[in-house]
């Protein structure tokens, strides 16, 4: 009965109630009265049907949100916009929570207990790449500060004689946001690089590890640290030319993974899933650390599934997937993956769900402005949002009316819910961000209808808002558990770091989508603006945009290195937005064509647990 209920269709809500009833009773059975085999089947009951069916799984259509085609049951379930709450919810049972807590204490006791500097740094780095650092933030910060203090007493002699430890320490300090500490470290890193540069042609493992650490560290450079950036490029060139036959397959895979995309630019949850497997293949991996990483990943993943099920019910009941909006992209799961890319920690579920809703609306609005609306209609649409009154939408075409009512209702609900909990009114801030976004969309529509191609600077001045990151990052600030009246009143529209983060997202988007969007009839993007302004070829323009991305990453690094206490909790979100965009747009438009890498990314982050 429990398994069968997952094949319920719309209108069969009674089956959903039966499902909940059965699940509660299965959880509270007297297991001593049952056979061991039956108990095991119950423990895995939520996944049993899926596991059996996976052998005959043809696939699913991500753009229609997990279209399952299962031979065993002869079922083709179309447009199922939910991930069932039963799948792997057993991972949240008390025994797994207790197991994780015990493992956390074991790992906590290991932090800082390694004998050498490089061993201590590599342990901290493993914690971070395994996605566990959020459990040990204070311990990691204390250890790094202790290391810095110890090295200052020794006049940095250890650091300057080891490129690997020097580069790794520099990167960890910047990643953890330890202010002022990483500034002198860059000088020590450059000094160490100059000493070891002449050895780069040697294929010794410690030399290659140093080059790899230097390469990764260079992507945290800020403006004015061109020497570090050049050192990173030199390290990259040498890494591409090493004698691969002299190293283990595992080490070569880690090098190739880094050269494909640096760690600082990677979506953290996707990298964590890859690194768990990679770490387990290392000769010197710590089994306790690996066990905790696997268990924690699955437990966090089960939270994602529950959130996505809630979102799928919201999306299905919202009414935006309808005949009036049949030209709009239906991308709920992709949008949720993007929200995970922005903020993955399990305790930020409220923000993830809000971000997903925001991105769903943004996609709908973008398609209305690009495909459907006349200029006069779009002006009315923008005015309706500016007035922020549901009854003001009555004069709009049906598709815009449906959309505006959905946006206003949802944002009002989010603000009301937060106000009831915190007694703070965040609606004016959310409204300001939405109005700015709509105005930026309208300006692009005017450019298109007038046949106007702006300069690149003029385009970017508007495009960092039209990409909509200002809404998501404003929501991240406003939905914080730590928000106070003072911090709410201090919110600035918009700090430089929001602009830089959003600009990177926009440029990533343009590199993969501009050609297709121009063909379908859209405002010129950054590439076309540069081509016209400089009379350049598309190839030259693309190369320039890639350089511009690197420049804005350095600007963002600089801002995050000196960020105020009010925004300190959101450093990861500021980095998360462009990382999520990079994830979708690295090889193609993974948002519009979500049946390629995006499908695999959804599988490994949200769907498939790690075997324990």
Automatic annotation (TrEMBL):
<dbReference type="Pfam" id="PF01397">
    <property type="entry name" value="Terpene_synth"/>
</dbReference>
<keyword id="KW-0479">Metal-binding</keyword>
<dbReference type="InterPro" id="IPR008949">
    <property type="entry name" value="Isoprenoid_synthase_dom_sf"/>
</dbReference>
<keyword id="KW-0460">Magnesium</keyword>
<dbReference type="Pfam" id="PF03936">
    <property type="entry name" value="Terpene_synth_C"/>
</dbReference>
<dbReference type="InterPro" id="IPR008930">
    <property type="entry name" value="Terpenoid_cyclase/PrenylTrfase"/>
</dbReference>
<dbReference type="GO" id="GO:0000287">
    <property type="term" value="F:magnesium ion binding"/>
</dbReference>
<dbReference type="InterPro" id="IPR050148">
    <property type="entry name" value="Terpene_synthase-like"/>
</dbReference>
<dbReference type="InterPro" id="IPR005630">
    <property type="entry name" value="Terpene_synthase_metal-bd"/>
</dbReference>
<dbReference type="InterPro" id="IPR001906">
    <property type="entry name" value="Terpene_synth_N"/>
</dbReference>
<dbReference type="GO" id="GO:0010333">
    <property type="term" value="F:terpene synthase activity"/>
</dbReference>
<dbReference type="InterPro" id="IPR034741">
    <property type="entry name" value="Terpene_cyclase-like_1_C"/>
</dbReference>
<dbReference type="InterPro" id="IPR036965">
    <property type="entry name" value="Terpene_synth_N_sf"/>
</dbReference>
<feature type="domain" description="Terpene synthase metal-binding">
    <location>
        <begin position="322"/>
        <end position="555"/>
    </location>
</feature>
<feature type="domain" description="Terpene synthase N-terminal">
    <location>
        <begin position="88"/>
        <end position="259"/>
    </location>
</feature>
<protein>
    <submittedName>
        <fullName>Uncharacterized protein</fullName>
    </submittedName>
</protein>
<dbReference type="GO" id="GO:0016102">
    <property type="term" value="P:diterpenoid biosynthetic process"/>
</dbReference>
<dbReference type="InterPro" id="IPR044814">
    <property type="entry name" value="Terpene_cyclase_plant_C1"/>
</dbReference>
């Amino acid at each position: 009965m429990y398994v069968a209920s997952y094949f319920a269709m719309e209108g069969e809500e009674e089956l959903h109630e039966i499902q909940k009833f059965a699940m509660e009773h299965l959880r509270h059975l007297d297991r001593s009265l049952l056979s061991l085999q039956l108990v095991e089947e119950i423990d895995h009951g939520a996944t049993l049907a899926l596991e059996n069916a996976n052998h005959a799984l043809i696939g699913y259509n991500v753009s229609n949100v997990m279209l399952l085609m299962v031979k065993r049951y002869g079922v083709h379930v179309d447009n199922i916009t939910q991930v069932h709450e039963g799948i792997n919810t057993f991972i949240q049972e008390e025994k797994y929570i207790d197991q994780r807590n015990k493992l956390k204490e074991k790992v906590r006791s290991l932090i800082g207990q390694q004998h050498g500097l490089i061993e201590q740094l590599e342990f901290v780095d493993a914690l971070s790449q395994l996605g566990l650092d959020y459990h040990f933030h204070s311990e990691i910060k204390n250890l790094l500060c202790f290391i810095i203090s110890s090295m200052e007493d020794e006049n940095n002699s250890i650091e300057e004689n080891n490129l690997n430890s020097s580069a790794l320490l520099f990167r960890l300090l910047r990643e953890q946001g330890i202010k002022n500490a990483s500034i002198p470290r860059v000088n020590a890193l450059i000094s160490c690089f100059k000493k070891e540069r002449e050895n780069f042609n040697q294929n010794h493992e410690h030399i290659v590890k140093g080059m790899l650490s230097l390469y990764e560290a260079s992507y945290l450079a800020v403006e004015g640290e061109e020497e570090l950036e050049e050192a990173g490029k030199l390290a990259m060139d040498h890494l591409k030319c090493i004698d691969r036959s002299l190293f283990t397959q595992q080490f070569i895979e880690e090098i190739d993974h880094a050269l494909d995309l640096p760690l600082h630019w990677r979506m953290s949850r996707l990298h964590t899933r890859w690194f768990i497997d990679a770490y387990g293949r290392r000769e010197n991996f710590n089994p306790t650390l690996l066990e905790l990483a696997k268990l924690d990943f699955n437990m966090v993943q089960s939270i994602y599934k529950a959130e996505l099920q809630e979102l799928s019910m919201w999306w299905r009941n919202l009414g935006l997937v309808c005949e009036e909006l049949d030209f709009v992209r239906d991308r709920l799961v992709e949008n949720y993956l993007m929200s995970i890319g922005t903020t993955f920690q399990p305790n930020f579920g409220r923000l993830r769900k809000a971000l997903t809703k925001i991105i769903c609306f943004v996609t709908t609005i973008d398609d209305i402005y690009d495909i459907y609306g006349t200029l006069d209609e779009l002006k009315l649409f923008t005015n309706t949002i500016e007035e922020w009154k549901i009854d003001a939408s009555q004069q709009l075409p049906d598709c815009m009316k449906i959309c505006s009512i959905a946006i206003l209702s949802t944002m009002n609900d989010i603000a009301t819910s937060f106000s009831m909990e915190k007694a703070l009114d965040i609606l004016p801030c959310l409204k300001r961000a939405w109005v700015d976004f709509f105005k930026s969309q309208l300006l692009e529509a005017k450019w298109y209808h007038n046949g106007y191609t702006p300069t690149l600077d003029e385009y970017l001045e508007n495009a960092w808002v039209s990409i909509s990151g200002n809404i998501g990052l404003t929501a991240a600030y406003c939905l914080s558990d730590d928000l106070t009246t003072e911090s709410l009143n201090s919110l600035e529209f918009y700090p430089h770091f929001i602009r830089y983060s959003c600009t990177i997202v926009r440029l990533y988007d343009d590199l993969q989508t501009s050609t297709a969007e121009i063909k379908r009839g859209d405002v010129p993007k950054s590439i076309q603006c540069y081509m016209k302004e400089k009379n350049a070829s598309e190839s030259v323009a693309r190369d320039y945009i890639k350089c511009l991305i690197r420049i804005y990453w350095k600007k963002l690094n600089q801002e995050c290195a000196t960020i105020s206490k009010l925004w300190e909790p959101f450093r990861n979100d500021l980095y998360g937005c462009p990382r999520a965009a990079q994830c979708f747009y690295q090889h193609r438009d993974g948002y519009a064509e979500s049946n390629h890498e995006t499908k695999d990314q959804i599988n490994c982050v949200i769907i498939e647990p790690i075997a324990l």
